[in-house]
């Protein structure tokens, strides 16, 4: 409440500088908002000089003070306070405001030294050119202006590198991040910078360089576990599954022993780089995977690579974690590596099938079926896209309706996939009647057909394509079991229906020819086979690759539906055609 006086202002501004540093350091979190104390300090300076600036913005206030206040004793405290202001603005991402402030803080000589070429960064040049004022003998500083300058330079390079990385300007990002790595920061921040350098190099298509940076991050701070998850991602990109799985296993072990903890307080209450740089892109790059996500990635990669026994072990571990109530602790955001829980169950069933544990696969699928049955509406109507609503309430209603339809389609796909897996499992057990019963479930025959026959919006197309594929595989699967039982006419009908869903499908076409052959309709079978064989070599694979990739839980079903007797059938048909030709000639 005392009036501002010029003789005491240097001491007052130094006390303000120290108190703001203590406040920022003691909070042990990122700096946010405005430094109101700095604004009040500037207003006190103007008051002592007989001026006012209540209506000015903080930037305008700084400009007025630095241009109009010429008292020599106030220059050093104002310079230090300006550096502290830069820290607050840097945390808010106001880089332009910082550049303008340091142009005012710098002398003409400093500004001349700050001139930079196009390749150099203007803000970093201004920060480096700024001459730190000498400390006075009156009151010690809790953090020197020189130390603050170094941290500002590091944080500015780090922040701008992240911005360029997010914008896709990778060479510029790499240069700025390398500048930050050579700056003054803690081991924790240095490891984060190297992690970002690794991600940048990976996006530039330089996986080996990325690995060097990521390994450097782990050497600096082995608790920087996001670097280890990025190492696994790079090896996945390189196709080195062995090392990728080793990295994931090491990551899972590290997370189990030492789960990520909150950052500990600095004992020195200093402004540090981690307080100044907090952007969404950094949060994304440094996101700690939950142990459940890593366990799932291990299971998924083993299944994709054909390591069935390992996949089964990891999936069962994951399902056991679910039973222990871990689901409530799992991350639910879109960045999570986890798919929907029913899909994990179906992938586990797929792994169990491939490992020969068919009864276990049936049990796991029954869990999916029982949990999703009540979630499927009795009538799921999918119509053409509606016109844009005129009011927000109508838009919200349509969005909710769309979400319900999408969820209904997902539940339907999971349930029908469960029946599909059970059908193949019973088939592998030699139980053809039970297999036919599962392949023939009402939801596979009627519920799926009533959805896929309707016009759909583009947003719902992926779910409908999955349902179509499930119906195709169910019909092929049931047809194969009819063949096993000698019910060739029923098998033929199923293969014909399959080709209506997916004309030219290689498996359905091959089985159709076999059914015709067994029905002694050999001429028709030979004609079909010749037409199929004369198609271009890559045409079948091209058709299989059309549309979107299949969910992982359907890949094994697709493999089981492949026709296994192509060579034998081809020889039989070739012999038949040669004999028919000889008879004609004779």
From TrEMBL:
PROSITE patterns from the UniProt entry: TPR
Gene Ontology process terms (BP): interstrand cross-link repair
GO cellular component terms, semicolon-separated: Fanconi anaemia nuclear complex
InterPro entries, alphabetized: FANCG, TPR-like_helical_dom_sf, TPR_rpt
Gene3D superfamilies, sorted: Tetratricopeptide repeat domain (1.25.40.10)
Pfam families: TPR_16
TPR repeat placement: 472-505
Keywords noted in UniProt: TPR repeat
SUPFAM superfamilies: TPR-like (SSF48452)
PANTHER family associated with the record: FANCONI ANEMIA GROUP G PROTEIN, FANCONI ANEMIA GROUP G PROTEIN FAMILY MEMBER
Name of this protein: FANCG protein
Annotated source species: Sapayoa aenigma
Gene for this chain: Fancg
């Amino acid at each position: 409440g005392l009036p501002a006086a010029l003789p005491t202002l240097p001491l007052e501004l130094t006390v303000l500088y120290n108190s703001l540093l203590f406040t920022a350091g003691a909070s042990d979190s990122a700096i946010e908002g405005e430094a109101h104390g700095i604004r009040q300090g500037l207003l006190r300076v103007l008051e002592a000089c007989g001026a006012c600036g209540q209506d000015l913005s903080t930037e305008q206030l700084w400009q007025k003070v630095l241009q109009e206040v010429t008292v020599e004793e106030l220059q050093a405290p104002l310079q230090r306070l300006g550096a502290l202001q830069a820290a607050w603005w840097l945390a808010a991402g106001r880089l332009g405001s910082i550049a303008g402030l340091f142009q005012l803080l710098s002398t003409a000589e400093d500004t001349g030294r700050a001139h930079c070429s196009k390749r150099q960064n203007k803000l970093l040049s201004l920060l480096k050119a700024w001459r730190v004022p000498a400390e006075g003998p009156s009151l010690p500083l809790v953090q020197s202006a020189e130390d603050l300058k170094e941290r500002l330079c590091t944080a500015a390079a780090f922040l701008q590198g992240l911005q360029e990385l997010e914008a896709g300007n990778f060479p510029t990002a790499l240069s700025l991040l390398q500048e930050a790595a050579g700056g003054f920061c803690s081991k924790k921040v240095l490891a984060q910078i190297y992690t970002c350098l690794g991600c940048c190099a990976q996006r530039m298509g330089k996986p080996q360089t990325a690995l060097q940076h990521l390994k450097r991050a782990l050497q600096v701070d082995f608790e920087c576990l996001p670097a280890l998850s990025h190492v696994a991602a790079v090896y996945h990109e390189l196709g080195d599954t062995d090392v990728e799985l080793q990295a994931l296993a090491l990551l899972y072990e590290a997370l189990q022993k030492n789960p990520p903890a909150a950052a500990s307080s600095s004992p020195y209450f200093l402004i540090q780089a981690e307080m100044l740089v907090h952007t969404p892109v950094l949060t994304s790059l440094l996101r700690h995977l939950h142990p459940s996500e890593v366990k799932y990635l291990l299971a998924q990669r083993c299944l994709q690579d054909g390591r069935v026994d390992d996949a089964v072990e990891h999936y069962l571990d994951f399902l056991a974690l679910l039973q222990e109530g871990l689901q409530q602790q799992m991350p639910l955001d879109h960045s999570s590596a986890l798919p929907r829980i029913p899909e994990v169950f179906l992938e586990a069933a797929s792994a169990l099938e491939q490992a020969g544990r068919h009864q276990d696969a049936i049990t796991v699928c029954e869990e999916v079926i029982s949990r999703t049955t009540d979630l499927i509406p009795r009538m799921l109507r999918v119509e053409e896209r509606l016109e844009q609503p005129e009011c927000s309430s109508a838009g919200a209603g349509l969005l909710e309706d769309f979400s319900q339809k999408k969820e209904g389609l997902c539940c339907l796909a999971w349930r029908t996939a469960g029946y599909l897996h059970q059908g193949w499992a019973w088939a592998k057990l030699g139980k053809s009647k039970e297999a036919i019963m599962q392949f023939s479930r009402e939801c596979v025959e009627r519920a799926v057909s009533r959805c896929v026959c309707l016009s759909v919006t583009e947003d719902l197309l992926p779910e409908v394509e999955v349902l179509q594929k499930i119906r195709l595989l169910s019909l092929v699967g049931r047809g194969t079991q009819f063949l096993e039982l000698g019910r060739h006419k029923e098998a033929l009908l199923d293969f014909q229906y399959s080709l209506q869903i997916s004309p030219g499908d290689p498996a359905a076409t091959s089985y159709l020819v076999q059914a015709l052959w067994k029905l002694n309709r050999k001429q028709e079978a030979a004609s079909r086979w010749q037409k199929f064989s004369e198609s271009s070599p890559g045409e079948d694979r091209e058709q299989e690759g059309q549309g979107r990739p299949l969910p992982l839980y359907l890949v094994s079903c697709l493999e089981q539906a492949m026709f296994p007797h192509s060579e034998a059938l081809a020889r039989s048909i070739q012999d038949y055609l040669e004999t028919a030709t000889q008879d004609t000639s004779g």
